[in-house]
Design a protein that fits this description.
Layout: H1 3-12, E1 19-20, H2 26-36, E2 40-45, E3 48-54, H3 55-64, H4 74-77, H5 91-101, E4 105-110, E5 113-119, H6 120-143
Parallel strand pairs: 1-2
Antiparallel strand pairs: 2-3, 4-5
């Protein structure tokens, strides 16, 4: 399974990309994230991905500023070099990358162009769905065991 499979499913469920400019106040980003109930914003400048803002970076900025956001900008808080993948990246590789860096969100890029963003939830769901499908196929195979052949339970 590849990242493109996740993007295809997300596209069918209205996977809208939310972006913000790096010069915007961090408080605006926090308000958007709260209003849209999301954990990340893609930071874009001049049509290019320049960073990723997640609730982790927001919490760190709040901590650095003793609980206030003041005049902190998105650029001040964002991760300027987020991990990225391509639509052709295998889900197992994405899972390894995300676990290794404790990343919860990963932009998907093709030749510098943003294709979408996937979350650790998306990756976990795809793995569970794939396992459930395999289990159903195995159960169907066992149920249709040919007559005259040894029963798979050894009876």
């Amino acid at each position: 399974m590849q990242v493109s499979d996740i993007l295809r499913v997300k596209g069918q469920s209205g996977g809208t990309l939310f972006t913000i400019d790096p010069t915007e106040p961090l408080v605006l980003a926090v308000n958007i994230m709260a209003e849209k109930d999301m954990g990340s914003l893609l930071v874009m400048a001049h049509g290019r991905l320049v960073g990723l803002l997640t609730f982790r970076e927001v919490i760190q900025a709040v901590s650095r500023n003793q609980g206030a956001l003041g005049d902190v900008t998105v650029r001040d808080a964002m991760d300027p070099k987020p991990l990225t993948c391509t639509p052709d990246t295998l889900i197992d590789e994405v899972r390894r990358m995300m676990l290794g860096t404790h990343s919860r969100y990963m932009p998907v890029m093709t030749e510098g162009e943003l294709q979408g963003v996937i979350s650790f939830y998306d990756v976990a769901k795809s793995v569970v769905d794939s396992q459930n499908f395999e289990n159903q196929m195995l159960k169907a195979y066992i149920k249709d065991w040919p007559s005259g052949s040894p029963d798979p339970d050894g009876k």
